[in-house]
Specification:
This protein is mainly beta. The chain contains 5 helices and 31 strands. GO terms for molecular function: hydrolase activity.
Length: 584
């Protein structure tokens, strides 16, 4: 009797694990693409944020609480570093000292909010130099000025010492820092003393959020960095935050996103090589255009613009994709919170995919316009009086825009309803080789993540680099049947590996998850080939019918094809699972 009951419980548990694979898809009346498999590689990440895949297949993952983790193709996991970060939520956080996920390693008063490490980028010569770049919040940086200094017309520090809208300290900003570190490629460890600080941005620290942090190399070797509007969503009722009151500057994205003099709500472009060339002497400023062969940034000659601005007018640009074939940026822009339009305020919230053309210089509208250039109304936050709609002249409309529920304001009805968190992803140009490359139907497609809905959507990249954004093209495969990629749980970053697979880091349970996952999307039925990762790289032996976390993770997920039976056999002890060592 006990044995039978145990077997039934195992089967129920297995079925419970299988159902979520299609949950996001079924909610949108779509099906998982049977030509793509999902494999969970590791499932013990704490609040993961970003990842990079090296040419030898090792995957480096950052976490909001400061951890850097390295996963190798043989299943070995190494804790590479624990970088001290300022991740405090100064308005009251989700964690206190007692339940902090890192136990005694957490500082006193620890409250994990939106700070931490949010960006990672490997140097082009990473496999020989071990150099990588991290974008993170600097511990104890409250009140510090960033380097380079803010422009005179950037959003000022809030100076309301009476406490009506600003902290009594007067200076409510801290610092985001871009630094170079060096990894020991044999040990997979990062000596924090190798840090070379390069570039900083301000961070409004008492009224979080929307900080950005994605990074990519452009074809010319300059670095692209995303930043959010650094403007709270709590004081604008889910509509446009353009507060005119002097003591409420933290509630105005008009002073950040829409302001070319401020580095927030932007895509920034930085000449890292010029910065690094001055490390033995006066530090170069890293403004593109100072070196031969590097085109200047679009606003370099404007004395009222910050010289690093490449494109502006974004709300929460957390992740983007870059196509080296077309030099376009494809940005995920998380929208505000209003579920319905308001005649005094403006449209309901839309999340967006935005396209920045080569050379940048575009204004994407926030906080004055949204979606396909639908204007908000001018609004007096002191009196509550509404004014005329803003002008959207000269602003670049979104390529894709959608709402919380199907709406006449968005043509993408096949997306259905759900939470809205549009993130960027990868411009997938299918490699000529690679044992795990996605099917040909995904070649030259932009793949982007919907964090809240657990989905990956895709649409074709046209020859000129624009997106084929017709509703019929969204998630259409070669035969015209709409498929989503296998269901994910809060995907937050993705990158293409040397094997042609797409590696995804999932929060898996929300913003404060302690069970984040590293997952791989690959062609169905395919198996890794060590030749894709270079000489001497070992790969993990995997069961042919089940996808199982390789490092002490137990039963993690099921392949869409033939996986259920294999997982049942594993659960019942009928199939041995090989585990690898863990170094954390």
């Amino acid at each position: 009797m006990t044995s039978t009951r145990t077997t039934l419980l195992v089967l129920v548990a297995v079925m419970a694990m299988v159902v979520p694979l299609g949950t996001a898809a079924s909610a949108q009346s779509l099906l998982p693409d049977p030509s793509v498999d999902k494999e969970v590689l590791y499932g013990e990440l704490i609040s993961p944020t970003a990842l990079e895949v090296a040419p030898d297949g090792r995957v480096i993952v950052t976490s909001r609480e400061g951890q850097v983790t390295v996963w190798e193709q043989d299943g070995t996991v190494t804790r590479a570093a624990f970088l001290p970060v300022d991740a405090y939520d100064r308005q009251g956080g989700q964690f206190d000292v007692e339940n902090c996920p890192r136990g005694e390693e957490c500082p006193a008063g620890f409250n994990l909010a939106e700070g931490g490490i949010h960006g990672i980028l490997l140097a082009p010569d990473f496999m020989t130099s071990g150099e990588l770049y991290l974008y993170y919040t600097v511990a104890n940086s409250l009140g510090m000025e960033p380097w380079p200094p803010k422009m005179p017309n950037a959003r000022p520090f809030c100076d309301d010492t009476a406490g009506d809208g600003c902290p009594a300290s007067g200076n409510d900003e801290g610092i985001w820092r871009l630094s170079r570190f060096t990894m020991d490629l044999d040990a997979n460890t990062i000596d924090l003393s190798t840090e070379v600080p390069l570039f900083e941005n301000p961070a409004e620290w008492f009224y979080c959020c929307h900080y950005g942090g994605d990074m990519e190399w452009r074809n010319d070797g300059t670095l692209l960095l995303s930043t959010g509007d650094d403007t709270t969503s709590d004081h604008s009722s889910g509509y446009s935050p353009h507060d005119q009151r002097a003591d409420w500057t933290f509630n105005s994205a008009a002073l950040t996103s829409a302001n070319p003099a401020d580095r927030r709500g932007k895509v920034l472009r930085i000449d890292i090589e010029e910065l690094e060339s001055g490390l033995d002497g006066p530090l170069g400023d890293g403004v593109p255009g100072d070196r031969p062969g590097i085109d200047p940034n679009p606003f370099l000659d404007d004395p009222d613009a910050d010289p690093y601005v490449y494109a502006y007018g974004f709300r929460s640009l957390y992740r983007f994709g870059y196509s080296p074939e077309t030099d376009h940026v494809y940005a995920g822009n998380v929208g505000p919170d209003a579920r319905n339009p308001d005649p005094t305020r403006g449209p309901a919230a839309h999340d967006e995919i935005e396209v920045v053309p080569p050379g940048g210089g575009t204004n994407h509208g926030w906080p004055f316009c949204i979606a396909d250039n639908v204007p908000y109304n001018e609004y007096d936050f002191a009196t509550g009086a509404a004014g005329e709609p803003f002008s959207c002249a000269g602003m670049t409309p979104a390529a894709v825009w959608y709402t919380y529920v199907p709406s006449t304001t968005s043509p993408y009805v096949q997306m259905g309803g759900g939470g809205n968190t549009a993130l960027g992803g990868v411009a997938y140009h299918r490699p000529d080789d690679g044992a795990l490359r996605l099917p040909e139907a995904y070649d030259d497609h932009f793949l982007w993540m919907e964090y809240s809905r657990g989905a990956v959507w895709h649409m074709p990249i046209a020859d000129d680099g624009s997106l084929d954004n017709s509703p019929a093209s969204l998630n259409a495969t070669a035969n015209g049947i709409p498929f989503v990629l296998p269901g994910l749980s809060n995907p937050i970053d993705m990158a293409t590996g040397p094997d042609g697979a797409v590696y995804v880091v999932e929060s898996n349970g929300g913003w404060n998850s302690i069970a984040g996952r590293l997952t791989r999307l690959q062609c169905a039925g395919c198996t890794p080939d060590a030749a894709d990762y270079g000489d001497g790289v070992e790969i993990l032996d995997r069961p042919a019918v089940a996808s199982v976390a390789g490092v002490d993770g137990g039963l993690a997920s099921v392949l869409p094809t033939a996986g259920l039976l294999g997982l049942v056999l594993v659960a019942l002890g009928g199939l041995g699972v090989r585990r690898r060592r863990r170094v954390i």
